Amino acid sequence: MELWSVQTFLLSTAAAFLVANVTAFVIRRRADRTVTRFLAELGEHPGALYPAALFTHGYGRHDSAVTGWAAVHRARRPLPDGESDHPITALARGVVERDGGVEDITEVTGQEGFFHEHWKEATWLMDRLPRSGDDIIDLRAELMAYPAAAVSGWMAFSVFAYLTASLKAEGAGLDVVDADDPAAAYGGAILIGLLLWLVGFFVMLAVQAALWSPAYGRWLQRVRDRGAHVLRRELGEAYDDFLADLRQSKSATLRPPIPPRRGTGLRA
């Protein structure tokens, strides 16, 4: 079998595709195990409401509006006998009892000490999730973009190496700029390699999305539903009002919704 034959190219591309997707599967599997452990710990955490709210609806650790609205709706519920408020809830309860309602969430988040407590809960959350960054369970790059770049990069490299080897062996030119210029042949090979990478990347991105989007969407829905279960436990019937206030809040940067699956009507 020739070193750069079509058969070798196809087999090596298939191998690169397999390696990239096995790696993506391992990343997704490890993320799932990490999130499962976090959700188990969340059930025992004394301030579970706030990490659960950030995890389920907040876009990263900076979204204090999510924490603030969760505190407001928790503060509207009576404090059970023998229990003490979480520090964030206590701050919100002071505003709710004084003003009777909250029109602007900065009435809560602007209080001294709020951000200190918010960051404590956000850090507790971040320490238990699979990655850092703004959206801590957004694995789309690892599952789709990175494998697409790896496979299309290998395809472009293979073709470029074949063209370069052919040019060196045969002294042929591609007549891209000037047939009398020896550099023109290699410039043409580089241009072809870049174009193939660009085309290959978008083709592979579409392939990766077709492979991973349905499973990834189901996974996101499942872990967010489990976070929402904690919120319903903490907020009771006020959970729907909490969501309504979040959606109307100008300062909240909520997670992008999960597209509904066809025929199910499910939404984030």
What is the topological layout?
Blueprint: H1 6-42, H2 49-56, H3 64-75, H4 87-99, H5 106-109, H6 114-126, H7 140-170, H8 182-235, H9 239-248
Helix pairs in contact: 1-7, 1-8, 2-3, 2-6, 2-8, 3-4, 3-9, 7-8
Labels describing this entry:
268 residues; mainly alpha; 68% helix; elongated; disordered C terminus
If you had to describe this structure to a student in words, what would you say it looks like?
By secondary structure, the protein is an all-alpha fold. Helix content is 68%, strand content 0%. It contains nine helices and no strands. It starts with 5 loop residues before the first helix and ends in a 20-residue tail after the last helix.
Summarize the model shown.
The protein contains nine helices and no strands. The protein has helices spanning 6-42, 49-56, 64-75, 87-99, 106-109, 114-126, 140-170, 182-235, 239-248.
Question: What is the strand content?
Answer: under 5%
Number of strands: 0
Return the structural class. mainly alpha
Mean pLDDT: 82
